[in-house]
Amino acid sequence: MYGGDEVSAIVIDLGSHTCKAGYAGEDAPKAVFPSAVGSVDEMEVDNPDNPEDNSGSTPDLKSKGKRKLYVGSQALGFRRDHMEVISPIRDGTVVDWDIVENIWDHAFRECLLIDPKEHPMLLAEPCSNTQQQREKAAEIMFEKYQVPALFLAKNAVLTSFASGRATSLVVDSGGGLTTVAPVHDGYVLQKAVCTSPIGGGILTDCLIKSLEQKGITIKPRYSFKRKEIRPGEFQTVDLDFPDTTESYKLYCQRAIASDIKECVSRAPDTPYDDSSYSNIPTTSYELPDGQTIEVGADRFKIPDILFNPSLVQTIPGMESFAETAASLRGLPQMVIDSINKCDVDIRRELFSSILLAGGTSSMQQLKERLEKDLLEESPQAARVKVLASGNATERRFSVWIGGSILASLGSFQQMWFSKSEYEEHGASYVQRKCP
Fold first, then answer.
1. What CATH code is carried by the domain that includes residue 260?
2. In the predicted model, what is the mean pLDDT of residues 59-85?
3. What is the 3-state secondary structure (H, E, C) of 302-344?
4. Where do Acidic residues bias regions lie (predicted)?
5. In 3D, which of 294, 305, 298, 434 has the Cα closest to residue 369?
6. pTM to 2 decimals?
7. I need a surface site. Which of 41, 91, 121, 193 has the fewest CB within 10 A?
């Protein structure tokens, strides 16, 4: 129906950390940019030379329509006074559709340079997506963007397709959530899905707090400039921007801390405890301002939070999350709980095809550690096999890659939810077309 070479479908995976967009049939997304956006209240932008209005004496101007949004890595990388960084996604669900529309606009108009009217759209969605969320997405796609056809596919199913399997247990650890979802014959077994709020974002925050405890403060890139005083020798000059918001400062610090985490951390072979990791050799990392820091036990402690969430309680400054963490289960328990909620007949098959996906899953030794823990805790008869693509890019983009494969299959072309069906049956028809 929408096959053929002229028009290729567009695949969009809007995650809690990054948005991935590109053409179906390609092996990697064309555009990858943050899901967070910068927001400045228009009141501060419109009247920079009128101090009276700047004082905030007209609160009604702070209404929803009066904000200017900055989307994309470049727009966010540029510091602006009073710019707040906000994310449209909380706990895997969209809480601000206005921002989502701006993100989609950016993907179509700035990154892919396409007219959405001409391309069918495949949207990846979390397993926990509600009916209202799906209908809202369909409504915006058909009403605002006038797309010819649409399909919503579950993240876990797409990851399974990307690895060429119809049945598997998908462990997707992203920026905001870790989800364990069994997929059987291309469908998610909804009753057995387990989620945990521990994702890359929490680990990054734990690392920032842990470094601060040791007296290391990560300076955001906008807060200093480096001058060369002699060849190869630099002096750092601090810059002061009093009107920078706390959320923007944290966004910039997280970007650096996230890089430290990706470069130096690895999952420990055995559960972390202070005594055995206290005199471990440190690894050095050079911060953007030129200072070199040594990262020791944190390299192992931070990743181990995925396996033992109560470790969060030992990190000063994370108290607000520590109460939640006490009741959370680690990755191996989530996997076993999820498999136990499935039908007895498919449990063996799930144990032998556990797929790791998502940006956080690219951490060194994570696959080996998860396999080791599961071998100890799973039933004797189970053959445990944790599979992960050796290519970190494929792990990060596995959902998008699965969507790219699915939308370019000839046999898939009659599955699209078309614009004419939308006009005839309304948005609720998405439930029937995209189970």
1. 3.90.640.10
2. 79
3. HHHCCCCHHHHHHCCCCHHHHHHHHCCCCHHHHHHHHHHCCCH
4. 41-52
5. 305
6. 0.90
7. 91
State which of 289, 308, 326 marks the end of a domain: 326
pLDDT (tens digit, 9 = 90+) per residue, 90-142?
A: 888 999 999 999 999 999 999 999 999 999 999 999 998 999 999 999 999 99
- The mean pLDDT value for 308-316 works out to 90
Contacts of 59-66 spanning 24+ positions with Cβ under 8 A: 64/98, 66/41, 66/42
Residues 365, 397, 257, 287, Cα dihedral to 10° = 90
Parent domain of 287: 200-243+253-326
Crossing angle of helices 331-340 and 366-377, in 10° steps, is 50
Report in angstroms the alpha-carbon separations of 394 from 27, 284, 402: 9, 28, 10
CB distance 207 to 260 below 8 Å: yes
Q: Is residue 384 part of a domain?
A: no
Look at residue 108 and tell me if it is in a domain. Answer: no
Q: Enumerate residues 6+ apart whose C-beta is below 8 A from 382.
A: 347, 348, 351, 352
Give the pair of three-digit tokens for residue 376.
């100890």
Could you tell me the sign of the dihedral formed by the alpha carbons of 128, 130, 135, 141, in that order?
negative
- 211, 298 in Cβ contact below 8 A? yes
* Helix (H/G/I), strand (E/B), else coil: 282: coil
Residue 149 covered by a domain: no
pLDDT(170) > 60 = yes
In a domain, 224, yes or no: yes
